Amino acid sequence: MSKTAWLTLCASGVFTCGVVYYVHTSQAKDRERLREGVIIDIERQQQKKRQNVRQLALQSDLTKILREQQKQYDEDDRRQRENGSGS
């Protein structure tokens, strides 16, 4: 085998090994990024769920306050009508 053919064979072997290594590491990194994406999505969903629960609790508290205010308003209105119509 001539020296040129030997160098060409070695160069193509090194190039092939480099390409295989690059593709392997690239695929491994892509799989890791996909896993991280799933984990980030799960965390985002859990955070959104916690935020929704906090908002629901706040809405519930506000509803209770408004109902109490409405009840007080209705009682005051009823008293005024009774006092106004009874005089």
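Next protein, fold it too.
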Amino acid sequence: MTAPASGPSAGAEPGGLRIETHGIDVIGDADRKGAPRDLFWPWFAANVSVLGISYGAWVLGFGISFAQASVVVVLGIVFSFLLCGVVALAGKRGSAPTMTLSRAALGVRGNRAASVLSWLLTVGWETVLTTLATLATATVLGRLGWGGGTTTKVVALVVVAALIIAGGVIGFDLIMRMQTVITVVTGVLTLGYILLTLDHIDLDAVTALPAGSAPAFLGALVFTMTGFGLGWVNMAADYSRYLPRHTSGAGVVAWTTVGASVAPLVLVVFGLLLAGSDADLSAAISADPIGALTTILPTWFLVPFAIVAVLGLVGGAVLDIYSSGLALVSTGLPITRPVAAGIDGAIMTLGTVFLVFISDDAFFFTFQGFLITLGVPVAAWAGIMIADIVLRHADYDEGDLFRPEGRYGDVPAVPLVILLLSTVIGWGLVTNTSASWLQWQGYLLEAVGLGGRDGSWAFANLGVLVALALAFLATLVLRRGAVRRQEGLPASHVELVVTDLP
């Protein structure tokens, strides 16, 4: 076991960039700083990506009308990011990363299952975002006649990966600075993209889109939730943990939700208008989500577009690699957070090489399969975690978050069974045709009368919502007494908080 770095991060002169030495430990009072409004910057920057415009085409791809899609976008984005806001509240209460605080719900060692899940999701997301940034750069430079082939992609990958890995390794201070700059630059340039492409919108074509069925509506809703808030919920406390204890809990929830939601709401609705106006553009987005958006731009704006596209994607990937490093440490590996971020950066780079240079699958189908498959267990974990936060009235006992013999237990059976059963039931209610090895999903659709894998409900992906609701309700009912007993115990008064476990 090793002691945490309780003082300032080691590194450069005061005020300069410093490599963050904090890992999964609790942040000491001396290092807590800021206000809830500071959460706006990282969350806005991570979600202002022009990828949000492509979501408009994907949502309409479920066969629903513009009105239905607009409801889907508002409900899916705001509700899913509200879940992030609730989890961020735990960061303020416990001043530790999400996957450390999750030990209160799943046990000190039992939580390693959730840590592995979180690591897979975040590494997957950072790989997806790096891939998109690489492809977008190559597409723009190709249109300008400056390259666009293999060499261009290699150079783009090296530059993008270097930015992301640097942010992940150096840590919190650099990330907060990067996200502030990214917020301003991408916000302005994204507005420019919208203004330049307004004349491409055909309102008659958009309003003529026919309404879809209830299964199609729910399928689009689930896809939106997994693509936005449920893709971030497992790391939502990683940035609120630096806030002082006296910080307003309502402010933490509100600024997280607003900061994360405002850009996607504008971008996805605009994407609905563009995709509904042009069927060819909508189809092109499936293969190259960012590059396809350049086809309706004047040449002189291609370079600014490349800047906004790459910076927006980097903004999201930087948060992912930081949190994936924390998740990897939380699995029990005896490594530091910077080393974990470096390992994840290497995996991210190799994954991007595969997707850019080797894989020939349509991007959207691979992406959708990734979201839905991991979306089910993540939703189950979110249900457990959020119910646990709702049940608690006091701050976390910091010492017991690191002691298997403490109040939170080692491998508690009830929450782990809830996680397992909710996932099993959820996977039985989703289908996935993106890869042959995922076609086992949907095994409950016939049994519950939803028409089987070929029925109208097959692609509604109800399993994500079911897993979330089932895990939340089961935890509220079955864990209430355990939480009350935990909060009734005296404080552990452990002075040495450990950062890993044997």
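About the second fold: Residues 183 and 383 are 30 Å apart (CA to CA).
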